[in-house]
Design goal:
Blueprint lengths: L1 H19 L22 E5 L5 E6 L8 H9 L6 E8 L26 E26 L3 E2 L5 E6 L1 E4 L4 H4 L4 E6 L5 E2 L8 E22 L5 E24 L2
Parallel strand pairs: 2-3
Antiparallel strand pairs: 1-2, 3-11, 4-10, 5-9, 6-8, 7-11, 10-11
């Protein structure tokens, strides 16, 4: 009799343990180790700032998108649960295109003949990279493929407010451009519950302040003097081309 009771107790214990184990596991939300880490996957799941789960697809594993970029994109639209990111572009072509003599501040001082200059710039971010513009490009119906009637060219321009000795040494990007030619093909959803796909481009900007120092050295190598300038800036960081699927 005691043996029967022991087996009954063991059986009930096993039943309780079994009931506590979920029969099926829901797909886990993507673990984010670092918001600024680039994503090299074709699909992830994240939650927007409203607590809603969002599925994000990528055109390839090297779009250049970071988790922070994705978060900025999905947080802007609580009605969308499916996004696709195609490209994150960073245009650095203008950083080194400003010779020192373009700035009048470099001609105020009269250092000794044969002197050399070394510049040091320190930047402090006051407002981190965030979306400041969101352009609509085109909307495509389910099962359709189309092109633009006119080329899309979107440009975001930054600014520098203050004096400097060497503009290139500031390392501030002032222009970034995204283009879609009339030959680029845009496709709508192929199946499922979504009836259209809207293509858009988000532009990111960073604000900050800077201090730049000019170290002037005599021909002998001795330090002649140090000058300091400073100011604020708005830097064009990147753009992200993406789409969102809609039931409309």
């Amino acid at each position: 009799m005691n043996t029967t009771k022991r087996w009954s107790a063991l059986f009930m214990t096993l039943v309780l343990i079994f009931m506590c184990i979920p029969m099926s596991a829901k797909a886990e939300e993507t673990t984010i180790p670092n918001l600024d880490e680039e994503i090299h996957q074709l699909q992830i799941t994240m939650k927007n700032k409203f607590g809603q789960e969002v599925t994000v697809f990528f055109a390839n594993t090297n779009t250049g998108a970071t988790y922070r970029d994705v978060q900025c994109i999905i947080d802007d639209d609580p009605e969308t649960s499916v996004f696709t990111i195609y490209e994150v572009g960073e245009d650095e072509s203008d950083i080194d295109s400003y010779p020192e003599t373009m700035d009048p501040a470099t001609r105020v001082w009269s250092p000794p003949l044969g002197s050399t200059h070394k510049y040091k710039t320190e930047k402090t971010i006051t407002t981190p990279s965030r979306v400041v513009r969101d352009d609509f490009v085109i909307s495509v119906a389910k099962g359709q493929t189309t092109t633009l009637k006119k080329e899309y060219v979107g440009t975001l321009t930054g600014s520098i407010n203050g004096k400097y000795f060497n503009k290139a040494n500031l390392g501030i990007k002032l222009n970034i451009t995204c283009r879609f030619s009339v030959k680029h093909k845009f496709t709508g959803p192929t199946s499922g519950k979504y009836n259209s796909r809207e293509y858009r481009v988000k532009y990111f900007r960073e604000d900050g302040k800077y201090i730049q120092k000019d170290y002037c050295y005599k021909l002998s190598g001795a330090l002649y003097g140090i000058r300091t300038h400073g100011g604020t800036y708005q830097e064009t960081v990147k753009y992200a081309s993406y789409s969102k699927d809609s039931k409309q």
